[in-house]
Amino acid sequence: MSIIAARKESTPTAHVADEPHAEASAGDSAGTAPVATRGQVDITNVRKSFGATEVLKGVSLSVPPGGVAVIVGPSGSGKSTLLRTINHLEKVDGGYITIDGELVGYEVRGNKLHELREKDILKQRTNIGMVFQSFNLFPHLTALENVIEAPIVAQKRSKAEARKRGLELLDRVGLKDRADAYPRQLSGGQQQRVAIARALALDPKILLFDEPTSALDPELVNEVLDVIRELAKSGTTLIVVTHEMGFARDVADTVVFMDQGQIVESGTPQDIFANPREERTRSFFSKVIEPAFNI
Amino acid sequence: MSAIAPPATADTAPPTPDYSEYKLVPARHPWRWVGTVLVAAGVAAIAWSLVTNPRWEWGVVAEWFTAQSVVNGLIETLKLTAISGVLGFVLGFILALMRLSASPLLVSVSWTFSWIFRSTPLLVQLLLWYNLGYLYEKISLGIPFTDVRFFEAQTTTLISQFAAAVLGLTLNQAAYSAEIIRGGILSVDQGQLEAASALGIPAWKRSTRIVLPQAMRAILPNAFNEIIGLVKGTSIVYVLAYSELFYTVQVIYNRTQQVLPLLLVATLWYVVITSVLSVFQYYIERHFSKGALRTLPLTPLQRARKFFTTHVAATPTKDAR
Ligand SMILES: Nc1ncnc2c1ncn2[C@@H]1O[C@H](COP(=O)(O)OP(=O)(O)O)[C@@H](O)[C@H]1O
Ligand SMILES: [Mg+2]
Fold it and tell me: What pTM, to 2 d.p., does this model score?
């Protein structure tokens, strides 16, 4: 059983120290000092089965506040399932997940973990933004309405305040002038950027991306990756599942390679891409990276 | 291989003629015009027979069309349709949510409800409700198996003709609308619910703000079918001697013996109601197609206005601006 915990305590400080002033001068809404103090994710020995097949076989992973973890691995290896356990869209069968020390989806009573009531789970989810491969924008709402729906309905913010913030966020993803367009009137890349703005509207500590560019035409991939790159500097913790190895190399603090429901190995991009220790990692990259770099 | 033409390059391809001065002519549809003429001729023939055949007795129709008793009957019909339509669809929505819930109890209650009310004739249901007093003399609310009663009444005073009619129509309608609404909800992509719960939106709001507005596109055509069916379906309550439109004209023609003209009076009113409902249907469907189409088609009014401005009123208006 190869369970490898990817703990990198030093990352946030190192990450922020890279660009101490660039953030403040950019007037980024993430705050003046992007010293990330929230958004620590700890996944401990998580198991999950669908029927008889065990999809997650004891996965442990830590991402420090403001860290960027990129999860790669073959299709069906359990990446999406792992991501979905982090906001309790998928219930775990064993193990537990904490965010800033707070259990996700459960509370301790006596020596048992009791599942939280729906209401409390929904409240926890407002701390965790999620961006889907298929965007899942609400097609009957405009871009701006998509962004402000959750702040108004789930966080009970005033409509005026939500609109103001919504427009700021659309501006941040470069779509302020498309605020009144319906999703079907937008390109795939634009839709995904609206979806990112929608996830940001709740001011989450953590953002989860499940293959955010896999449904896009190649020429639209970069406009979405650029937005995520920008977010990586803002001090929000990011966990990204992707097949874009170039992006992983540039942006990740930690690259996690998953196969058959396990984390095979994890480390800095240099470690994982240049000197993979495990044979499975090496053979995966030989299939994924080389064709891409030969083009 | 040799069949493939060589790629056109600047020096081999013949120069393309310049078409920039040509006028575009849309395709013509001559058969449409032939069809239109045939249909128009048929319609004219029928209209002619309606007007010239004296046995239709249009004078009698006109006389009774707005008579007080007929209008009263019409109002009762509209009242029954509105009340049982609204209550039926509200109950149907709740039944649909029950049927789609994770609770086996709610699922089976909802399923059984639909099974019972869809498998018994409406006529029987209505007569059963009206004759409930025969089966149960008193209706009371209290603690079962004790003598404690908070409320008690004679069944016959409680269930009037109107109550029996509304009860029968509503419950029957609910069973059918539940299935229509369930079908609509199932047509919405599962990812929508997932995205909404990931955003922390509560279950009730997910249903009403995210799923239902999208489900409406699938629900509305069937729902209007049901409502239009209900308008005419209310005529079945004549078995309770309830004086809605159909019962009213029956009473009148039994007295005057002018059967066909009076049936025509009722029919014309049903046509009027259905036509009004169809207009509502058009605009409501249009409202809910927001975002589903890249551009909304023009309404008939907008189309007429566009036709008028482009074809009838020519250029002078431009200069006036
Ligand atoms: N709801 C589900 N029911 C049954 N099997 C599932 C379900 N979701 C995922 N799986 C299975 O779990 C495995 C891991 O899936 P997933 O996490 O989506 O992999 P990845 O995102 O790495 O491609 C796959 O074999 C998939 O078929
Ligand atoms: Mg996946």
Answer: 0.80
